[in-house]
Structure formats: structure tokens, C-alpha cells
Amino acid sequence: MRKVHLIREFAPDAYEFALSSWSWIGTGDKTPRFASCFGDMFLESPDGWWFLDSVEGTLDRCWDSMEEMFADLEGADGRAEYLLEETLNAALGQGLHLDEDEVFAFLPPPAVTGTMSVSSLAPLRFAIAANLAGRIHGELNGVQPDAGASALFAAQRYAAQQAAAQEATARQAAAQQTAAQQAVARQAAARRAAAQEAAARVPAPPVATPQRVAAAPTFDAPNPRTDRWQPAAQQAGYEPQYAAGSELDYAPGQTSAYDTGGYAPAPAVYAAPAAAGAHATGAHAAPVAAGGYDYVDTAHTADSGQFSQYIADQYNTGQIAAVDHGASAPAQPRLQQGGRWSYA
Fold first, then answer.
1. Which residue, among 251, 224, 244, has the nearest Cα to 235 in the 3D structure?
2. Tens-digit pLDDT profile for residues 276-323
3. Chain-centre distance of CA 114, in angstroms?
4. DSSP class per residue in 113-173
5. Do 297 and 246 form a contact (C-beta atoms < 8 A)?
6. Nearest to 35 by CA among 131, 122, 111, 112
7. Which is it for the CA torsion 78, 81, 82, 83, positive or negative?
8. Long-range contact pairs involving 143-148 (C-beta distance under 8 Å, separation at least 24)
9. pLDDT for the residue numbered 318
10. pTM of this prediction?
11. Closest CA to 250 of 285, 292, 289, 286
């Protein structure tokens, strides 16, 4: 930022033109010595030092001597009141600068607008700025303008133009802001519509149809279904066992039956079978006579297939082989019944 002195000095003819419009306030016997950066002038007279405020349009005797005046201007309060130091720093901060013969002027002047704004500051030649301020304040105090040219009217017209321009700028900025907001709203609506359309194109997931689950088959666990045509002796881990007394008994002298081509077993008495699906009411029936045989297994009376298997097992385990030796078959362990159709 360029350094600017708070006090500015100008040529004598510049002071002369600047004060030519302030004669109505009584500057004839006073000599301008220097000015502020805003066109305010410090004047000397035989009775003291005067301050001409071009912004307020006043002329006041403020100091009795030069020493007193400079002592006041060196203080913070004096610089703020007479030299407008803070306003000067704000103007320089906005990038404004002054040439050797220029000062900052409020355009339009505060006498017309009633406000002092840094944004209305502009650099202007000192002589012109001070002369214009004197003419405006003179007209406000009843001084007729020279040759019919009214500085006050020009300032008012300029102020009106500036106000209109600022209002138009504000309306344009508001319109641009509104247009930007509407554009954002349209874009958001378009995105929502696209999302809804994309969601509509996605096929709905299939509705799960409840499937009927077949009931698990139930059965009596100790009595699994078996193939009636499969020999029970061939099942894994199975060892056929028969009840004692269930072996075939052959009569003496039947060994010669093989010579004739056959043998005749002794007649046997059978126990009365139980009803279908039930065990016999009694234990195994005893042999009717010596040499007879009991092949009735009451545990198998309800199943003819199991009974046939029993006969086949008798043959396969050597019960018939006893005929070759002429002796009875060895005794077999008694049947352990763990279920209706299975051996334990």
C-alpha cells in the first residue's frame, strides 16, 4: 500500500480557485496553509487558526497558535476528527490512490445524499473538489449560482443517477441469484425424475411362493420295513439264532430213507397260530412224540416269508445234515425277541 501523508500542500493558484466559491462563509481575510486528503483546509489569520470543513460546510476557529494546532493533530483524536485517518486507510485499502494535486471527494457529496460511504470516494483535483463543495453548500445556504449554473442541481441529478444505477445493479444481482436458485432446483428435479425412472425400470423381485414340504415318513423305529424276499441271514452283522427245541428231530432208522430216495419225518403237532399281526398266545409247543420235530416259530406266524426263511436257514446251518450221521441236531440257543420281525 502506497504511503500517503495526512497533510497535503498545493500551489497558491489552486488555493485561490478552491476558495473562490467559499466567500459567502467569510474566508476573505484568511490564508490557506495546507489541506487534508479530503479537501478540508487549515487557514491562518491574525487571531488564530481556522478549520474549513468542506464536507459539513462550516468554518471554525479551533486553535490560537500553530503549536497548539499541531499538538492537537499529532494526537489520535485530532487525526480522527480533522484528518479522517480511518476513512483514509479504508480508501487506500480498497486500492485507491492519489496524485500530487488530488484529494478524495465524496461523489455525490454528503450534503446531498446525507451519508458518507467509502464506496462513493473518488480521486479528484483539489481545486475542483473544494470549489464544487463551496458552491453546493452556498446554494444550500441561499447563495445564487453564477450564470445560472447550479452545482447543487448537478449534484442532486448526479446523486439520483447514481442511486438509480445502484438500484439497477441490485435488481440485476437479485435476478441472477434467483435464476441460479431456479437452475439448481431444476437440476435437482431432473435428478429426482431420472432416479424415479431408473427405479421404475428395475423389475420387481419375484414373490416367493410357499412350497409344500412333504411330510417325513413315520414308522415304528424298532420295526423297519424289510424286503420280504431278502434272506435275513445275509444282513450285515446278523447271526441267525433259533429257540431251543425248534430244531428238526428225526426218527431212528430214517438214514435208510436216503437209499430209497427220501425220508419221512415223524408226524408233528402244531400249535394253533395266533391272529394276524400278533404273537402266539403260548410258548413254543413241545414235540408230540420222540423222534418228532417242532419247526413252528410262533414269532414268525404272521409272516409266511419269514417262516420260509426259517426253513431255509435250518437247511443251510446243518440241521438236515444230522440225517447223514443218524443223530439228532445239536441244540440251538433260544431266540431273543427284540422286535416283532427282527432278532436281537
1. 224
2. 444 444 444 444 444 444 445 454 444 556 666 666 666 666 554 444
3. 55
4. HS---GGGEEEEEHHHHHHHHHHHHHHHTTPPPGGG--HHHHHHHHHHHHHHHHHHHHHHH
5. yes
6. 131
7. positive
8. 143/24
9. 54
10. 0.49
11. 292
